[in-house]
Amino acid sequence: MKDFLRTTGVIALLLVVYSLLQGLFVGVAMAGYLVYDIINGSLNPSMFSDVEALIESPVIKAHEIDAMAIGMFLSAAAMLLFIHATKLFRLRKSLFTSIAFRPLLLSTALVFTAIPTLNVLVQWLPLEDLLENEFDGLTRNLLGAFTISVLAPLLEEVMFRGAIQGYMMRRMHSPWAAIIAAALVFGIFHMNPIQIVYATLLGVVFGWIYYRTGSLMSVIVGHVLNNTIATIMMLLLGPTDEKELLNEYMPSEAVIASEIFTFVFFGALSVYLAVKLHRSLPPSACSMA
Predict the structure, then answer these.
(1) With contact defined as beta carbons under 8 Å apart, do 220 and 153 qualify?
(2) Phi and psi for 91 in degrees, rounded to 5?
(3) Residue 261 burial by CB count (10 A; 0-12/13-18/19+): exposed, middle or buried?
(4) Residues 152, 145: contact at Cβ < 8 Å?
(5) Residues 22-34: pLDDT tens digits?
(6) Residue 74's closest CA among 16, 29, 13, 25?
(7) pTM
(8) Closest by Cα among 246, 239, 282, 277 to 103
(9) Which long-range contacts (CB under 8 A, 24 or more apart) does 141-147 make?
(10) What is the pLDDT of residues 185-240, one digit of tens each?
């Protein structure tokens, strides 16, 4: 019971601090834009008397994505420093580089094949994407795209795999219990129905890879790959449902057949790569840092 309470406390601490940092830096960035707009005359101070009108004004709308991008970038950087300072996960160079080329290649390939498998799976489920427009806006912002593609994956692997899963590993008898629990926290953290399922399942993949390799680099590369592909797809297609896009050019039967083929083919390939990765590593590689 004591271990459970300590683990819950650690998880709550990390999530609360990160949420507060995001809110703080987004708020500061937005406040900076407001001051700038008042100084250059594009925003009338009298508008502050009507909060709803202020929020819906074109001037505020024009700065929302920029402020969000700045806030995400600064909060991610600050959170990395916080995790390191609290010693929940020390950002030592060896934890990022201590992996041979073959396991790194296999783990990256495994993530690459798991992505389309899980994408098809979540498309079959009746789940909403509540943050699609925000994600679309951030991908079209240079700092936002960099944060989503590189910095956010780095932070999330340090926090959810390095700190949370690592902490659970040291207190749970079953490695799989720690992997699944950390993946669930990772999924729920996204607070978006379609991302909750997708991130949880992908978190299990990331968690197992980290458990087997003992190196964060093996999951950071895969996570960066996942987010970069999603960013590129959003830039190319915009906030358009992939299934709707396919239905414009293919009969529904062909779309279903292609989805089944993708799920079976890449799913089988993922299992094959997981077995290859598992066999390529000695048992001692399972120890958590």
Answers:
(1) yes
(2) -80, 70
(3) exposed
(4) no
(5) 999 999 999 898 8
(6) 25
(7) 0.87
(8) 277
(9) 141/65, 141/66, 141/69, 143/69, 143/70, 143/73, 144/65, 144/68, 144/69, 144/72, 144/73, 145/231, 145/235, 146/73, 147/69, 147/72, 147/73, 147/76
(10) 999 998 888 889 999 999 999 999 999 998 888 899 889 988 998 899 888 876 65
Domain that includes residue 54, residue range:
2-286
Cβ neighbours of residue 108 closer than 8 Å, sequence gap 6 or more: 218, 221, 222, 225
- Residue numbers of the chain with a pLDDT score lower than 70: 43-57, 59, 94-98, 238-251, 284-289
DSSP secondary structure string, the chain?
A: -HHHHHHHHHHHHHHHHHHHHHHHHHHHHHHHHHHHHHHTTSS-GGGGG-HHHHHHSHHHHHHHHHHHHHHHHHHHHHHHHHHHHTTSS---HHHHH-S-HHHHHHHHHHHHHHHHHHHHHHHTS----TTHHHHHHHHTSHHHHHIIIIIHHHHHIIIIIIIIIHHHHTT-S-HHHHHHHHHHHHHHHT--HHHHHHHHHHHHHHHHHHHHH--THHHHHHHHHHHHHHHHHHHHH-S--HHHHHHHHS-HHHHHHHHHHHHHHHHHHHHHHHHHHHHHS-GGGG---
**Residue 200: what residue type?**
T
Residue 123 · residue 240 · CB < 8 Å: no
Q: Which two tokens stand for residue 126?
A: 């009746």
Contacting residues for 92 by C-beta, under 8 A, at least 6 apart: none
Count of domains forming the chain: 1
The long-range contacts involving 245-254, CB below 8 angstroms and separated by at least 24 positions, are: none
Only one residue has tokens 């916080």, namely 82
